[in-house]
Structure formats: structure tokens, C-alpha cells
Amino acid sequence: MYGLTSQIRQCAVSVPSNIAEGSGRRHGKETIQFLAISRGSLYELETQIYVSFDIGYISEIQLTECINEIEILGKLVNGYIRYLTKE
């Protein structure tokens, strides 16, 4: 349980940290690269949430709530990437 909790925390910190770092870059391509890393961390987090459910650490309600939030965040990150790609 400790290992999974640690991985979830790392992903949860990685997502906004990479968004922030990418936003501080001077070039759009660098920003997009960090956003892609952030998106990857969201996918990793999603997997860890499913594993948490599968082994009984969280309830189905918690699973649904977490996955819904992750999907919303993924759409926001993807939208930001699309916006920067069009510039």
C-alpha cells in the first residue's frame, strides 16, 4: 500500500509541476513537451487509481470520482496543447 500511495502522490505532484514548468518556457514546443509529460502522468495516475480499486483500497464511488476528475484534467491539458499547436 505504501508503494502505491507514494506513486499516486508523485503523479499528483508531477501533473501541475510539469504544467507550471512548461508554462515558464519561452518556446511553445518546449511548453507542449512538458504538457505531454503532464498528460502522461495523468494516464499513469488513472492506472494507479484502477489498481487501487482492483485491490480494494478504494470504493467504486471513489473510483468514479477520481476517474471523472482525471478525465476533466486530461481534456484541459489536451485543450491547452491544441491551443499552443495552433499558435
TrEMBL record:
The lineage's top-level taxon is: Bacteria
Name any one Pfam family assigned in the record: 23S_rRNA_IVP
Protein name as it appears in the record: Four helix bundle protein
